[in-house]
Every structure is written in C-alpha cells, then in structure tokens.
C-alpha cells in the first residue's frame, strides 16, 4: 500500500538569527515556504541541519530537496571568488554534497531548488557564472531585494522537467544572481530563460534527479512539488 505521506528531507542551514526578546545566535533555518509547500503537496517535511555526518539521515527520508540559499564556495568548481559572490557557507556545501552523494547511492529522488540546482551541477564537475548580470547584461533574475520576480521559461519537450510540469512554457518566480555555466558530466540543461540562462538540469543517468533555478515553493504552481511527492511515494515503496 502506498504510504499516505512520504517524508521529504529539506536541507536547512545555519544563520545568525534574532528572535523574541532574548535570542541572538546561530540558528538552523529554512524559509517557512519550503515546509508549507511540501506539506501542501501531501508529504511530511523534515528539516536537515548542516552538521557533520548528517548524510546518514538519507536512509530515513523518501526524497531529498536541496534548498536555496547563499553562494556555493567557488573553490568547489576551481574558481576564485568574484567580488559579488556572497553568503558562502563551506559547512553547508560539505553537508549538502554528502547528502547528495548518499541520495544518489541509495537511489533517493532529489530536487534541487535554485542553489540546490547549482549544487547538482557543481557536484558533477560543472561550473557557475558567479554574477549573472555580468553575463546577460541585466538584473532581471534578481531585480529587487527579496522579491521573487516572475519571468518566462521554455522547457525541452522530451525531458523529465516537461513531464514533471506537464507543459513546456511557464512563468516562474525567480531570485538569484548566479547560474549554471559549464555543465557537469552526465548533466543536461532542459529549460532556459530567453537570455540563455539555464533554468533546469537533469542527470542523464538518473530518472529522478532534477534541478530548477526558480523557486516552486514561492509560486502558485503546485505541479512540480506534486510530481516530486509522487516520486517520494514510489521511493518509499521501493525501499521497504
Ligand atoms: N548562488 C546561490 C543561489 C542563489 C543565487 O544564485 O543568487
């Protein structure tokens, strides 16, 4: 019997936070929208902190979301930091790379969102544009602070991304200043913005690893997370 609510692990991260009257300290956090969107899709969200050895938790989840956040350390793809590169958290890069490796080893479905998509590429030897406006000549992918502005995306028709979304042209909520540059081994691009920015990647050797540069948790379109929750259900059955 299909489990009613598969468990989807979400990679969280450490940030200095202030809350209440007394508290100001490093906290494990993730925007609430991720948990809400996963719950709305019918799964149980489980936040995974960036701590050493955390990859063992992959055995306890049915699928893994690598979430958005700060920039990946450029050293991971053989580059020096650009002046605009910000929010680097080496411990998060390490923990998420270990989570991804464990998920691939176990055959656990993986969805990379924004930074998570970039990590999918870097993990296989790909590189990133460190500051997209320098490449495309505009700031449309991150036009205002904390505003997830919409833009159009075209999806390759015969792709996992198209099957997951059920269409090949959509408007997506977006907030990023970096993007995939050179693709890693067995990584293909399957969606693009009009300016050529890669908007989705897949692993050609895996049926259920997908990354999107946009933020499905911030939009009104539930299809991607509904598809991913179904993949999590199937994974739960496969691993019983
Ligand atoms: N590089 C981290 C993901 C967000 C961004 O590109 O701005």
Protein architecture, described:
It is a single chain. This protein has 240 residues and is α/β, with parallel strands linked by helices. It has one domain: Rossmann fold (3-Layer(aba) Sandwich). It has six helices and 13 strands. Strand 11 and strand 12 form a beta hairpin. The longest helix is centred in the middle third of the chain and has 17 residues. It is globular. The model has no long low-confidence stretch (mean pLDDT 95). The structure holds gamma-amino-butanoic acid.
Looking at CATH, the homologous superfamily is Class I glutamine amidotransferase (GATase) domain
Major sheet: size, sense and barrel closure? 9 strands, mixed
Radius of gyration: 17 Å
The CATH topology label is Rossmann fold
Question: Strand fraction band?
Answer: 25-35%
Strand sequence of the main sheet, in spatial order?
A: 4-1-5-6-13-12-11-8-9
- Helix-strand topology string: EEEHEEHEHEHEHEEEEEH
The domain tally reads 1
> Could you name the ranges where pLDDT drops below 50 across 5 or more consecutive residues?
none
Spatial shape: globular
Q: How does the SSE layout of this entry go?
A:
Blueprint: E1 7-11, E2 13-19, E3 23-29, H1 32-40, E4 44-48, E5 63-66, H2 90-106, E6 110-113, H3 115-122, E7 128-129, H4 133-136, E8 149-155, H5 160-165, E9 169-174, E10 179-180, E11 187-192, E12 198-203, E13 209-212, H6 223-238
Parallel strand pairs: 1-4, 1-5, 5-6, 6-13
Antiparallel strand pairs: 2-3, 7-10, 8-9, 8-11, 11-12, 12-13
Gamma-amino-butanoic acid (ABU) binds next to helix 3.
């Amino acid at each position: 019997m299909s489990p009613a609510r598969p468990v989807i692990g979400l990679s969280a991260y450490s940030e200095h936070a202030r809350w209440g009257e007394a508290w100001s300290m490093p906290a494990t956090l993730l925007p609430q929208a991720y948990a809400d969107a996963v719950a709305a899709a019918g799964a149980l969200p489980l936040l995974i902190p960036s701590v050493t050895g955390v990859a063992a938790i992959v055995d306890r989840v049915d699928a893994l979301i690598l979430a958005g956040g700060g920039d990946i350390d450029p050293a991971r793809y053989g580059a020096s930091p650009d002046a605009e590169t910000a929010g680097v958290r080496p411990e998060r890069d390490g923990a998420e790379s270990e989570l991804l490796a464990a998920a691939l080893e176990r055959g656990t479905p993986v969805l990379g969102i924004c930074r998570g998509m970039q990590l999918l590429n870097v993990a296989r030897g790909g590189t990133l544009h460190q500051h997209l406006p320098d490449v495309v000549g505009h700031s449309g992918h991150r036009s205002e602070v904390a505003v997830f502005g919409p833009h159009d995306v075209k999806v390759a028709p015969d792709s996992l991304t198209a099957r997951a979304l059920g269409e090949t042209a959509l408007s997506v909520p977006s907030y990023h200043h970096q993007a995939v540059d050179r693709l890693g081994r067995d990584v293909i691009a399957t969606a693009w913005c009009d300016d050529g920015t890669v908007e989705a990647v897949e692993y050609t050797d895996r049926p259920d690893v997908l990354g999107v540069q946009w933020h499905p948790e911030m939009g009104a379109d539930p299809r991607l997370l509904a598809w991913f929750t179904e993949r999590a259900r199937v994974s739960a059955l496969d691993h019983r």
